[in-house]
Design a protein that fits this description.
The complex is a heterodimer of chains A (516) and B (312). With 516 residues, chain A is mostly helical. Chain A has 2 domains: 45-266, Orthogonal Bundle (Vanadium-containing Chloroperoxidase, domain 2), CATH 1.10.606; 273-512, Vanadium-containing Chloroperoxidase, domain 2 (Orthogonal Bundle), CATH 1.10.606. Chain A has helices at 2-21, 70-84, 88-98, 101-116, 147-175, 180-183, 202-217, 222-238, 244-266, 277-289, 320-325, 337-351, 355-365, 372-388, 392-420, 425-428, 447-462, 467-483, 489-512. Chain A is elongated. Chain B has one domain (7-300): Beta Barrel (Porin). Chain B is 0% helix and 60% strand. Chain B contains no helices and 23 strands. Chain B has strands at residues 7-10, 13-16, 27-28, 32-44, 46-49, 52-55, 62-74, 79-92, 101-103, 105-119, 122-135, 154-165, 168-179, 182-183, 189-190, 194-195, 199-200, 204-215, 219-231, 249-259, 267-280, 286-297, 310-311. In chain B, the strands form 6 sheets. Chain B has a 12-stranded antiparallel β-barrel. In chain B, strand 15 (189-190) and strand 16 form a beta hairpin. Chain B starts with 6 loop residues before the first strand and ends with a strand. The chains are: A mainly alpha (516), B mainly beta (312). Chains A and B meet through helix 1, helix 4 and helix 13 of A and strand 10, strand 11, strand 12, strand 15 and strand 16 of B.
Chain lengths: 516, 312
């Protein structure tokens, strides 16, 4: 028996050693970033053209206290007290947030989208419940952050951050209050020093604008959002980057600017995009009247089409007539030989489900419980923006250009989808089995292709040396939808072209906003 | 004598369920090799989304078929090496999702009888079993429930006790399974938070197995009870798809029968069935399987005596 016990102990020791040797420690791509240390402060960004504000002075920011007042000295002392009792946890949040405010809030938004990108489960009677903004925590939770919803969320948050920062830069240069470490040289600083005036705090502008927008977009996640906001503000004080009045003024400015975007969002027609039974039936009837086979849901029970009226949402980069003019011509008729051939092509792709096909399909799928294709393109952009050491205001501007293009791409794409109401390949040939989930909306044009065409165009303008790489990614994302068996070639090629056209509107804006 | 490794696909997780081989008390004699093909079929219509039992009309019945080759070699009477590798095919009866197929993982186990003790008329034997399983191909793990496996490399350590009194026996064991990270085709995914990486931390798994029944030369019949607990992981959220690092727990009950005909003592026929009686983030699988094994003596002195190729 003694032998048994000894052997068991030896066995357990071996297991313990193996586990210790193979300790699982996975680091995320942006876990260990260096602090943002902009090469160029873009000191004249107060003159850049905002998206919604008429002028950077639309929101007033009060004159700050002078740095020789007791009030200001007390604020410096607050930093010193924090630093005296600094914990490992404090250092972690300083490290996290010093990578960049726009970057981190974009990541937070991607997290919220992924969490909420789940189609509601059906009711017992075979109908589907809709999330309610008034009761966001009840099932199905609000929102269902599907691709159009997500595209709109990314655009509003990015544009609000950008306008807030343009205004902040105006006041920074106007009041020119130095950063605390440039006032008190004895102050310990945990981030790279900068010559940029620190009032109002650019970080707090981004935080305030984001929090205010997210109250509208993700009203059920306030605990998580507020916790991030508190950490962000605290990180800036602990690090010595800002005194409390920099933070307070910045946050108030960010919130006030965001409120203008909230007002726009409430009137942008997205709230009515889900439609109703009469509209869903009308889409089908109209399509039959045109002599075409209408799309129907291949889910059981049949799910209403996703956001059929999203095509009516107010775009950022162009007016509603332009949006309609960007709609492409019709897909091949469902009774045409071309449609038969294209369906056959997709069937053959799905029969040939090689490992490489799965890799491409799953890399670009961005389906349920992900940040959606717009979020994927934000991640691609962020990865490159990190290497550019942009100022916060340029980060925000570039993200806003990208995300406004992505939102407008979703508007034109959804308008096209419901204008033609074209069936998916599996509806035309039920033998087509898909390598990823089949989206519950019409086929023509491919959302991934439209998003990718727009994103690659904007990013290629912002970072010209990567233009060919972005174009290749867009082509791959587009192709992946054919390999997956969920789109025809026409959906994809036309989608890329439409996306590119929309991206060009963002480039026109970029060339005229004063930042180039 | 080897029986077979029945890999029950429970929402993609390969648990060595009603397996014998590495989880029973049967040993091959020195130089004896027992080898043969196996077939298994497993399917579920209902599954647990976290604690909630549900069906999915867009999957219908999810089925897994597998064929494999299994073997058990007696290095010595007390030390056996066991191996196996299956080819797996999955399919969903409803919805549009494409089924998958391919060669899955190679399993290799070493079973060692470390102590044997007479307790009156009974014999008590203690075994330690170490095992590794590792993917043989670059199959897709992140397409549950249709993936053919989870693609982690697993190290297992098991302590097992066997009590035999005449023809009756009881075997109990506890297993700790360490699972390596896996890589998926995406470079970002959300569990309960965002992960900006293509690596997935796979929580380890503990399991407990109790089996009892009759054991004689011609017939082994046993009832098996297995409890698998994932040590970590998270629940599938409402109406979400499963993910490899979910908390997959399962309590399984089943029976195994092994028959060795007297006219062909080198052959044995195996049949088994099992059902998941409780679970979390797994399918409620009903699994059946069968195998045919043949014993050969690889020793220099080839003796046709197979009567005593098996202990205890």
């Amino acid at each position: 028996m003694k032998k048994i016990i000894i052997s068991s102990i030896a066995g357990l020791a071996v297991v313990a050693m193996i586990i210790a040797a193979c300790s699982k420690n996975i680091t995320g791509q942006t876990d260990n970033l260096a602090p943002l240390s902009p090469a160029d402060m873009d000191i004249n960004a107060g003159n850049w053209k905002p998206v919604l504000l008429a002028a950077p002075t639309d929101v007033e920011v009060a004159v700050p206290a002078a740095t020789n007042t007791p009030d200001y000295v007390a604020q410096i002392n607050e930093i010193k007290s924090w630093q005296k009792n600094i914990t490992a946890g404090d250092r972690d949040i300083v490290k996290y947030w010093s990578a960049g405010a726009v970057l981190r809030w974009n990541e937070i938004l991607r997290t919220l989208v992924a969490k909420h990108n789940l189609p509601p489960y059906q009711n017992d009677d075979g109908t589907y419940p809709f999330p309610s903004a008034a009761n966001p925590l009840a099932y199905p939770q609000f929102p269902f952050a599907n691709p159009p919803y997500a595209a709109r969320a990314y655009a509003y948050v990015s544009a609000a951050q950008y306008d807030g920062l343009v205004s902040a830069w105006h006041y920074k240069t106007l009041y020119n209050r130095k950063a605390p470490y440039n006032v008190d040289s004895s102050l310990n600083v945990l981030i790279p020093k900068s010559s940029l005036p620190s009032y109002p705090s650019e970080d707090a502008v981004v935080e305030g604008a984001s929090v205010e927008m997210l109250k509208l977009l993700f009203p059920g996640d306030q605990d998580f959002i507020q916790q991030k906001a508190e950490e962000h503000k605290r990180a800036r004080i602990i690090s010595g980057a800002n005194v409390r009045s920099d933070i307070d003024a910045g946050e108030a400015l960010g919130k006030a600017v965001a409120q203008k975007f909230v007002a726009r969002a409430r009137g942008d027609r997205a709230g009515a995009a889900a439609g109703n039974q009469a509209i869903w039936t009308q889409l089908e009837t109209d399509c039959i009247a045109r002599g075409e086979i209408p799309w129907y849901s291949l889910e059981t029970p049949h799910r209403p089409p996703m956001l059929p009226l999203f095509g009516k949402v107010k775009a950022f980069l162009f007016d509603s007539l332009t949006a309609i003019s960007l709609r492409p011509g019709p897909p091949p008729s469902t009774s045409s030989q071309q449609m038969k051939d294209e369906t056959e092509e997709i069937y053959n792709f799905t029969k040939d489900d090689t490992r490489e096909h799965y890799r491409l399909v799953h890399f670009w799928a961005d389906g349920v419980a992900t940040a959606t294709p717009p979020g994927h393109w934000d991640a691609i952009a962020a990865e490159d923006f990190i290497t550019k050491n942009y100022s916060e205001v340029r980060w925000a501007r570039n993200m806003a250009l990208l995300n406004m293009a992505l939102m407008d791409a979703s508007i034109v794409c959804w308008d096209t989808k419901y204008f033609y109401f074209n069936p998916r390949p599996t509806q035309m040939n039920p033998n087509i089995k898909t390598l990823t989930g089949l989206p519950n909306f019409p086929s023509y044009i491919s959302g991934h292709s439209t998003f990718s065409g727009a994103a690659a165009t904007v990013l290629g303008h912002l970072i010209p040396e990567r233009a060919a790489a972005y174009e290749a990614m867009a082509q791959e994302a587009s192709l992946s939808r054919m390999l997956a068996g969920i789109h025809y070639r026409s959906d994809c090629t036309t989608g890329l072209t439409v996306g590119k056209n929309i991206g060009n509107y963002a480039i026109q804006r970029a060339q005229a906003d004063g930042a180039e | 004598m080897i029986k077979k490794i029945l890999i029950c696909f429970i929402m993609g997780i390969p648990i060595i369920g009603l397996a014998q081989t590495d989880i029973d008390a049967i040993m091959m004699e020195k130089n004896a090799l027992c080898i043969g093909p196996m077939y298994g079929y497993s399917s579920w219509k209902k599954y647990w989304e976290g604690d909630l039992k549900r069906e999915n009309l867009n999957l219908g019945t999810v089925s897994t078929q597998m064929v494999g080759l299994m073997g058990n070699y007696g290095v010595t009477k007390r030390l056996n090496v066991l191996f196996g590798a299956p080819y797996v095919i999955t399919k969903a009866s409803a919805g549009t999702l494409h089924g998958m197929k391919g060669v899955q993982d190679l399993s290799l186990f070493v079973k060692y009888a470390i102590a044997k003790q007479k307790l009156g008329d009974a014999i008590f034997t203690v075994f330690t079993i170490g095992g590794i399983s590792t993917p043989l191909t670059n199959y897709v793990a992140d397409f549950l429930p249709l993936s053919i496996g989870l693609h982690s490399t697993n190290l297992q350590l098991r302590l097992m006790g066997d009590y035999q009194l005449g023809k009756f026996f009881v075997t109990g064991s506890g297993t700790y399974m360490y699972r390596s990270d896996i890589k998926i085709d995406r470079n970002s995914y959300y569990t309960t938070e965002t992960h900006l990486t293509n690596k997935v931390d796979m929580p380890d798994v503990a399991s407990f197995n109790l089996r009892a029944g009759l054991r004689s030369y011609h017939l082994i019949a046993e009832a098996v009870f297995n409890r698998m607990v994932t040590l970590g992981g998270y629940d599938i959220t409402r109406n979400n798809m499963p993910f490899p690092s979910n908390k997959m727990n399962a309590t399984t009950a089943g029976v195994n029968i092994k028959y060795t005909p007297s006219f062909a003592p080198r052959l044995s026929l195996i049949g088994d069935g099992s059902y998941v009686i409780a679970g979390r983030n797994v399918g409620q699988s009903l699994s059946i399987g069968g195998a045919i094994f043949y014993v050969m003596d690889l020793g220099r002195k080839s003796k046709p005596d197979t009567k005593n190729k098996q202990t205890p």
